[in-house]
Amino acid sequence: MVKRYHQYIFFEMLPPFIVSILVFTFMFLVVDLVKLTEMVVKNPGCLGQVLALMLCSLPFFMVFVLPMATLLGVLLGIIRLSSDNELTALKSSGVSLWQILPPVLALSLMTLIVSGVLSIWLKPLGLRAAEDLRVEIGTANPELALKPDVINIVNRHLVIYVGQAADGGRFMRHLLIWDERNPRLKQTIVAKRGSLRLVPGTTSQTTIKKIEKKFMLVLRDAKILKVSPDLRVTPDSTFEGMRQPLILSQLIPSLQGGRRHPGGMTLGELLAALEKAPPGTQWHNRLLINLHQLFSIPMACLIMGLLGVPLGIQGRGSSRFAGVIISFIIFVVYYLFMNSAFTLGKDGTLPPVLGVWLGNIVFGLLATYMVWEASRDRPILFIRIFYAAGFRVQRTLRKLGLVT
């Protein structure tokens, strides 16, 4: 039976939850927006494709945003109730912590279901559409992949440095190329000028069912250098003109190797690919990790929601800004722990399945312990330490005039 105070607590958490979704989504998009803006500046004609690319990336961002928003929504809602002594009033009326949990669980389960739908269905479709859009943009504008004044690591056998670029990157100056695509002919090439041109009438079919165009990197005033074991560089040959063939998939990392990235595979495709992949190989581990990620990341919504309850209760008298700082610390610790476990799983140091779920297991046990201690009105030391750190950060920012 839904009681009135359940509804009151739920709607108290809802506004910070919604605001958190908007803020975190904006933060994720801003990071990606820099690269996308650069593409539009270089080629205004691809604006529509870039906007579609941003839209296709939203499901991927939202899978990670929802656990963050759940924690922050629950934490700020409980802090507000605790600071206004409303939780104290509920306790004096005979309402225990366990009776306060249903609205928290309701919000957490709602975000878990939405995150699950995004993770299992919409995220793979979005990443696949984004990958196809990158192919289309790259086919029309391959020069976008070779950034000036940056070491462009095309793959482990080909590295290209472009000093300057003009006309949207079509004409380049001061190029340095390290090419080991042919093991028998390893080359280090420097050139004063270069340009990227389409080879007419040549296409190649990839396993992701996209027709790729082949390009030629035309070099002018080029020299092939010899590098001795003691790193001495001596010119070997000089050419007025030189051509280096490039295929579009070489310029787009997600297409290298001719296979679709596991993140763009649906549940059925992952299961089918796992049956074909030799067990114990790195490719098998990546597929297994991505399969379990479809379920482990949405499960973080429930864990983060439970974490928010004791954090909010222990933060009685704290400001919302301190709650935001605590949430940020939890996010950083959780995702660093999760990424470390993923890396160990990919390398085979840990079993891949354990690497995926280890973060949820550890933080799930931590959340259970914290809820149990909070239900018995026991102070939790490390939460107090977190809030002390949050107060210090807030005080420092106030002195700097960054917050009021």
Provide an overview of this structure:
There is one protein chain. The chain is of the alpha+beta class. The protein has a domain at 145-255. The protein contains ten helices and six strands. It has helices spanning 4-42, 47-83, 86-92, 97-140, 248-251, 267-276, 282-314, 320-347, 352-375, 381-399; strands spanning 150-155, 158-166, 171-179, 187-205, 211-227, 233-247. It has a six-stranded antiparallel sheet with strand order 1-2-3-4-5-6. Helix 2 crosses helix 8 (320-347). The longest helix is centred in the N-terminal third of the chain and has 44 residues, at 97-140. The two termini are 42 Å apart. Residues 202-211 and 254-258 have low confidence and may be disordered.
Q: How many helical elements? A: 10
Overall average residue pLDDT: 81
Distance between the termini: 42 Å
Sketch the major β-sheet: 6 strands, antiparallel
Overall SS class: alpha+beta
Helical fraction: 55-70%
The sequence of SSEs as H and E is HHHHEEEEEEHHHHHH
Number of DSSP E strands: 6
Outline: elongated
- Which sequence of strands runs across the widest sheet? 1-2-3-4-5-6
Q: How would you describe the oligomerization state of the chains in this entry?
A: single chain
Stretches where pLDDT falls below 50 for ≥5 residues? 202-211, 254-258
**In angstroms, what is the radius of gyration?**
27 Å
Beta-strand portion reads 15-25%
Summarize the structure.
The protein is 61% helix and 19% strand. It is of the alpha+beta class.
